[in-house]
Amino acid sequence: MDMTKVFERIEQLKPDMIKTLGQLISYPSFRQQPEDGAPYGRPARECLRRALEICEDLGFETKTVGDMVGTAKFTEGEPSLGILAHLDVVPAGDGWTLDPFDAKVIDGKLFGRGAMDDKGPAVSVIYAMKALKDLGVPLQNSFELILGTDEECGSSDIAYFKEHAKMPKWLFTPDANYPLINIEKGHINAKFFKEAKRGVLVSMHGGKTINAVPASAEAVLSGVSAKEAASAVESAGCSAKFNITETETGVKLEVCGVSAHASTPDMGDNALTALIKVLAPLVSDEPCGSLLRGLAEKFPYKETDGKSAGVAACDEVSGALTLVLSILDFENGRFDGGIDIRFPVCTSVKAVSDGLGKALEEAGFSHKIGGSEPHCVPADSEFVKSLLGAYEAVTKKEGKCLAIGGGTYVHGTPGGVAFGCEIDGEDNRIHGADEFIRTDALVENAKIFAEAVCRVCNNPELK
Ligand SMILES: [Zn+2]
User: Fold this and answer.
1) CB–CB of 262/322 below 8 Å?
2) What is the pLDDT of residues 50-60, one digit of tens each?
């Protein structure tokens, strides 16, 4: 099919896209107090209502499911393709130089919370639908836009939708990166703990969130001199920076490392495992001494593949397992810790949990381990090939599949893939201050989606 006219129409619609995106950004649709008919708070519900109104005005039939999810259907008939975007956002946070909920276009970039994640991509889908409709492009199968409002806080919207409506057979979410993510690693969250009486180790704190490499950690030791501590730091030879001070309760060690997402631990410098490495020889009394040495042995500083814990795994399609010891506190005679693991498709929740449980027990800890299996849609499937074909046709760039350690909006929905919209080498400051999307990208994304819809919905193998 010659898409020239559709693409021209999409270009004409650019001002409408900018206006619509500005309207959607004006709702501070982060999770707020639930109200009647607004399970995630008033702004998220109002944002969904407005988006569906816009779709209706453009001539699409809409539906709301449980005040959580909305759909806009292209034509009659049961949709075989779903495009899943979300209208909720994370809170503004600090550091904005502009009003996060009053969109502004500056030098071809539209700034505002949700511009890229994920209101902008949702708007591109709406106007791809509009262009296809204006030009009367025939589709053998229908498709629908599905708009959720709880992606950022656990995707309970999608769980509800699956129970009360029908998810189309083919599904993509423009809520990650181009070209296309077909593999999301499995995920393990482990908590471990142990009562232990206070001795040389008075207290210890490292890490706050389980899915991040901790950038800072600290401990207080009694009966250890600042000089002894400095010499232990010296012989540990960590790249994380240590600061040692004398306090009333004892010598205090503070460590400064580099934070990173738990799915890419090599980009960080774990302050907590650096601290454990230094403490292991310094804490000479029991039981704290052997507990710390056990952790140092099973989860050594600078090791991110889980080898010493006996859980290392790797395959060609999804890469290596990553392990981050991300939390450890010692307070009131008790250790409490957390570990985040992302594992490849060649292994399973059971195998990794069993291995990790054994390692923690050998180190002297009790544990509670849970997780989710990897998500995978084969790279050579007709659906994936159709989407990548659309990407290549519009962008003239090479389309290829990516495997990631994080989970996307389609994690746990069989057959779903992530398709767009961030591109390599551009930081749109998702979840950060001054989030933006290029207005040209709004147009290009709409073209890619229109092309993808034509290819998927007219492919007899993808009925
Ligand atoms: Zn998102």
Assistant:
1) yes
2) 999 999 999 99
